[in-house]
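Any chance you'd type out a single protein's sequence alongside its tokenized fold?
>
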Amino acid sequence: MSEPRPSDRHDASDPDDTFEEIVDEATQRDPDLAVIEAGSRTLRTHSGQPQGEVVPARPADPETDKALRAVEQELAGRWGETKLEPSVTRIAALMDVLGEPQRAYPSIHITGTNGKTSTARMIEALLNAFELRTGRYTSPHVQSITERISLDGSPIAPERFIETYEDIKPYVEMVDAQQPYRLSFFEVLTGMAYAAFADAPVDVAVVEVGMGGTWDATNVIDSTVAVVTPISLDHTDRLGTTPAEIAGEKSGIIKEGATVILAQQPVDAAQVMLKKAVEVDATVAREGMEFGVTSREIAVGGQLLTLRGLGGEYEDIFLPLYGAHQAHNAAVALSAVEAFFGIGAEQARSLDIDAIRKAFASVLSPGRLEVVRSSPTVVLDAAHNPAGAKAASDGISEAFSFSRLIGVVGTSGDKDVRGLLEAFEPIFAEIVVTQNSTPRAMDADELAAIAVEVFGDDRVQVEARLDDALEAAITLAEEDDEYAGAGVLVTGSVITVGEARLLLGRG
């Protein structure tokens, strides 16, 4: 495995750095971006470098924990993420009374069906490597609601999350009183994210849609870069029953004059995206044409990549994530950052290779083929639809040499459960079906009935409680002696994975 080489860039923590010196360093950069970067780097002489990404536990301070729980309870009293009225009217009204915080910084907007969060994390890491202050908004969360809003690569502090909520709460109530429907859980969180980013302040926001695009609450930003990860069937009751129909909704994030970074897509979905780009005079870069994965090798703890970006090839990129899908996410993320810097359109150059290597080597994506235990090895993956399950199945088969793999599966009731189970059937020797603690969870017995049709009765075990399911799967894996190499994969839902992560001591 090739270790990432240390960057020879000027140390941003050097107290002798001055704003003017840093601007001078960026002579080949867009002048406005150079000033933004310089401001960020001088700010960091006081605030320090970004901390590594973590999945936060509950606040240690009892009073802070109590206050955070109170905010969570108030948010939970609103419409959940699966109940919505397709409109940006309410979130636009909230932005108006808040003074349009989402226009205080440029943004990169990400839609698609699978890979959005991992791609967002990669984009964030790359921007941080070039000393830009970032805000990242993703959903859903794995364990803590504060994960959804990140500043400079780390989840927002609980105290700041609470403060942001209290700051915008009077304005939320004002909009609630004026609208036929109150702002939803997701709309309030979106407002909090945009306000927190403006308050930080950040140089660029990396924003993942919640669902769709056109009427998603995040779609009140004017992003200069629109990223579309692979589209497949999910949320068909809301977005459409074909890739083309879903692409129609998701194409709504493409703004006039923007650059569109388009991952590999079904033909009909790609056609819809390209038509939308023509309508709004957007520039399109397509995976497999203008950018892509040139080569990929399995490496200890991840994979070694050569990526072709908009500005040329980037060799010896170590990515500490498993699966071909993550390599493709990396190509998309790299091209998105190049587009943000104007490479490929306004400038013909490459980004600093050492910064790129350092950024990708730092990427973490909790709950995405994440190893959380050994002897036996337990892997978590948040796949919740057939396409995600196929990617996870391929990734685990490629990266791990399990003699026998036991699945622990808990899904939501509104998903294509049969399709998900069929994608995992070839790699699971046995499956333990269970359910997570949310009302959306499919009943374990109902899930078992479908699993028996896919796997056969002798390969299915039912444990309604997730802790019992984990214990049962680990016991099954340990039936071979400890050197036999059996493993466990926990999957089916982000919620299931998050709860398993806590139960396995990773919270």
About this structure: Residues 1-53 have pLDDT under 50 and may be disordered. The longest strand covers residues 292-299. The chain is about 40% helix and 15% strand.
